[in-house]
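Fig. S4 source data, part A: sequence.
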Amino acid sequence: EEELVGAFQYLLTSVEVQEPEMLSTLISLPGLPELELEHSFIDPISLYESRMYLTSFFGKKLSHSLISLLIKTRHDCELNWPKGQAARKIKAVSWNWLLAGGNIEIRNEALNAVKGNSMTLARAALKALQPINCQEREMAMEIFYEKWKDRPVILDTWFSLEASTPREDGLNRVRNLLDHPRFDSMAPNAVRAVLGGFSANTKLFHAIDGSGYRFMADQIVDLDKRNPITASRIVKVFSRWRSYVKTHRDAMSYSLVKLSKSDLSVNTREVIEQILEV
């Protein structure tokens, strides 16, 4: 980790604002789906927690340089699209690391971005705040909802973020989202936002007791009755079930077998059979 800190420190001070597009790419940690590809048997919760630890570690160790970088890119971040795109990417990564590292002041900066006019920065702020259990996260989500509740396409972002935010009562919240007055169960994008967000909620979807898998299976059966095409696509969240450690593999297998015995459309059944055969 210390060697990585040294490498990142070098990048932050040598590449800096001259090559912001390159810098934002070089200092971005790989996402969980990419990290999973490097493991023969995946323990999703341990992998998630390890990535969060590293993000927090780098955020603390590189705090001074990241804050300095935010100051240097502040002007470019305010430029109208297409200008300023690279600077906004830098800000997104910096927020992510600093917030994970426990920087309290950046919480308010992210919250103000959600109130602002830049959709790119608003989404970046919400994503950075998402794993942090704090008042600013809840305020930001509420502000974004109130601002865009009459714009279904944008509101799908809120549905996805709500479904993927780690919370102790996460499963109940996802159930409530599916009954939300502004959720359109006939709109494929809205359904993908909630169920796709849920599948990205690592500790919820991959719950040790298998409740996340069972919930998703039940939703697929229900969805298949009204939109088999969307159901057949969402069922692919189970496609790598054999790659997980035994606890998760067995729980996923149980839900897949249960799905295979349900009354399903031809499309969805075909996808499930292919997944089980692989």
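Fig. S4 source data, part B ends here. Residues 44-61 form the longest helix (18 residues).
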